[in-house]
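User: I've been trying to design a sequence by hand for this structure and keep getting stuck. Would you show me what you'd pick, starting by listing the structure so we're on the same page?

Assistant: Good idea, let's start from the same input. This is the structure you sent:
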């Protein structure tokens, strides 16, 4: 096996430029997906059957179909159905946000329902309405319970963002593939991209662990 990392050293800055695009996709999608996931979770525990049904159908659709298919539908079908030429960035963020919301809603719902029923009853005895109960009693405890699962969702989102390379966006994987095709070397640029993904995941995991420790002793 012959490796030639020296040949791609001049192209490393080009590969690293993709990190910015990858992080932009991940953070924007997370910022949009988490609030939507929160609303879906609230709908799933709502006493109104219609809201519960809508939230369950939404989650079923996005959890039951491949993310790559969803990305393709939004990117290629939007111009056909609406006449609007959606950009690769818009298609990626929209797809990842909608998909992440489905998974996040299940995580948040499970965290809320994990709170002991006695605390719900005690708060109701004190005269708290449903929103006051959720905001002041349930949510603070649920956050501690679901933080590890939400971090896993963020890590998955970061790694799945590589799919935007299939629609031409210059993310980390796409930049590595570009260098590979120019240099006719594939192992070296792809292993550098893999190392970048690994470092980003480790930073997220380390930061989340520190936050979890702070919340535990807060």
């Amino acid at each position: 096996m012959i490796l030639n990392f020296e040949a791609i050293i001049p192209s490393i800055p080009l590969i690293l430029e993709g990190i910015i695009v990858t992080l932009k996709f991940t953070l924007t999608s997370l910022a949009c997906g988490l609030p939507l996931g929160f609303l879906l979770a609230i709908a799933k525990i709502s006493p109104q059957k219609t809201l519960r049904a809508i939230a369950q159908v939404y989650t079923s659709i996005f959890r039951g179909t491949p993310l790559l298919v969803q990305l393709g539908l939004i990117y290629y079908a939007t111009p056909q159905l609406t006449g609007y030429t959606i950009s690769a960035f818009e298609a990626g963020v929209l797809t990842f946000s909608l998909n992440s919301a489905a998974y996040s809603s299940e995580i948040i719902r499970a965290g809320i329902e994990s709170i002991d029923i006695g605390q719900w009853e005690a708060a109701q005895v004190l005269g708290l309405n449903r929103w006051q109960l959720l905001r002041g009693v349930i949510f603070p405890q649920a956050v501690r319970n679901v933080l590890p699962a939400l971090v896993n969702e963020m890590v998955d989102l970061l790694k799945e963002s590589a799919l935007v390379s299939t629609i031409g966006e210059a993310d980390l994987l796409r930049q590595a593939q570009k260098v590979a095709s120019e240099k006719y070397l594939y192992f070296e640029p792809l292993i550098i991209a893999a190392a970048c993904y690994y470092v980003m995941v480790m930073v997220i995991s380390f930061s989340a662990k520190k936050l979890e420790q702070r919340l535990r002793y807060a």
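That's my pick for every position. To get oriented when you compare it with your attempt: The chain has a mean pLDDT of 89. Helices lie at 12-44, 49-64, 67-82, 88-113, 117-125, 130-160, 172-183, 187-216.
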